[in-house]
Write a structure and sequence with these properties.
This protein is about 15% helix and about 35% strand. It is built from eight helices and 27 strands. By secondary structure, it is α+β, with helices and mostly antiparallel strands. It is globular, with a radius of gyration of 22 Å.
């Protein structure tokens, strides 16, 4: 009765309101941002990466050996009075296997990591009091990369923290389990538009995400069309460096996809685009001694993955990128954004280039390092993606 009353009261009070939830993270230490979501009755709270490049909501299941977090706090459907275990015989979902108890089992694959999960439904509480009944999620039973290896790979300074789960914010069609997404469940439960927006604080530490509308201080938002409703796919028209176009045709940037992905730290581009950018940088060596490019041995430059420390003067010499998307939407990518700490950098304070070539043929990915300076708006309702000036995340 306690949670039923709470759900009813919340849905009545919050219907058609913009819900703002804080998120956390220091991009210089771990290149992801995460919020907290509680699951079950009684509720157990987990830190989950905010990922617009996937659609599954995942938390650690009781007994998972390689999952992040406190094992005594892992989710157990048996211990939650509001849980519903989804049968592997249910044809509404993409069950790949059956557990010993006939529960729906499937795999969720990310770059370099595969997770085996059991499909479950339960109450979710976002932030402190945003209650979402009947939320589907995958309870992680096995993960291919251990917590220690994940911290070693992605944690610049090797602290022991890594988020316990993932909140995939993209379209249901991408869901490995085929279940409605947590974002879908949230907007349906609160009767709010399918819109959310991100804002990172200007120091790169923490921020806020809004649901049902844009953040309160959002202004000057311009939009481009979402071209495919799977990932947040948009069309990249051009890239300029210090105002000079690379001169490549738009299809080169959009070989298969061009997506906006908060769960990817870097900007990845087709190899021909990456090569064109490197060429422009090296051509500028006749005009200025770009640190990490012009003064580095062949094969050991920023474009080869090498890390360098920079003085303010050296940083100021580097050019600025502008990505141009459909409808003329610009995204300016400053040196302070495209040079950041990375797990390959051994020296404290050293920076790596946050632009890399995509060898998989996927296409272009606009990652979080490029989005940090903006309020980004994912307007599913009107099939458009927007960028606005970051006036603050309050």
């Amino acid at each position: 009765m306690q949670y039923s009353a709470l759900i009813l009261l919340f849905l009545v009070c919050q219907s058609m309101a913009v819900v703002v939830v804080p998120f956390y993270g220091n991009f210089s230490n771990l290149p992801f941002y995460y919020t907290t979501v509680s699951v079950g009755t009684p509720p157990l709270t987990y830190s989950v990466i905010l990922d617009t490049g996937s659609s599954d909501f995942l938390v650690p299941n009781w007994g998972c050996e390689d999952c992040a977090g406190d094992p005594s706090n892992f989710y157990s459907a048996q211990n939650s009075s509001t849980s519903t275990v989804i049968s592997c015989k249910n044809n509404d979902y993409k069950c790949q296997n059956c557990s010993a108890t006939q529960q729906c089992v499937y795999n969720v694959d990310y770059v370099g990591i595969s997770e085996t999960v059991q499909l479950t439904s339960d109450i979710a509480i976002i932030g402190k009091n945003v209650v979402v009944p009947h939320s589907f999620f995958g309870a992680i039973t096995n993960i291919s990369m251990s917590q220690k290896k994940r911290v070693s790979k992605f944690g610049q300074y090797q602290d022991d923290f890594y988020p316990e789960g993932v909140w995939g914010l993209s379209y249901r069609v991408l869901s490995a389990g085929g279940a409605p997404t947590l974002f879908d469940a949230l907007t349906k439960a609160l009767n709010i538009p399918k819109i959310f927006s991100f804002c990172v604080n200007k120091d790169g530490i923490n921020g806020a995400i809004s649901f049902g509308g844009v953040l309160p201080k959002s202004k000057d938002i311009s939009y481009t069309a979402i071209t495919h409703e799977d990932f947040y796919s948009i069309e990249m028209k051009d890239i300029s460096i210090n105002g000079q176009s690379l001169g490549l045709a738009p299809p080169v940037y959009n070989t298969k996809h061009c997506i906006v992905d908060s769960g990817t730290p870097q900007v990845t581009l087709p190899p021909s685009v990456f090569q064109a950018i490197e060429t422009v940088f090296k051509q500028n060596c006749t005009k200025s001694n770009l640190h990490g490019v012009c003064d580095a041995p062949a094969g050991k430059t920023l474009f080869d993955g090498a890390c360098f420390t920079f003085t303010p003067e050296q940083m100021a010499q580097l050019p600025t990128f502008t990505f141009i998307f459909g409808g003329g939407l610009p995204l300016v990518y400053h040196p302070a954004a495209y040079l950041q700490p990375w797990y390959t950098c051994q020296e404290h304070g050293a920076l790596a280039l946050m632009i890399s070539p995509d060898s998989s043929g996927f296409g272009s990915v606009v990652g979080m390092s490029a989005l940090q300076s903006y309020i980004s708006v994912y307007d599913v309702e009107n099939k458009r993606f927007g960028l606005g000036t970051n006036y603050g995340c309050e």
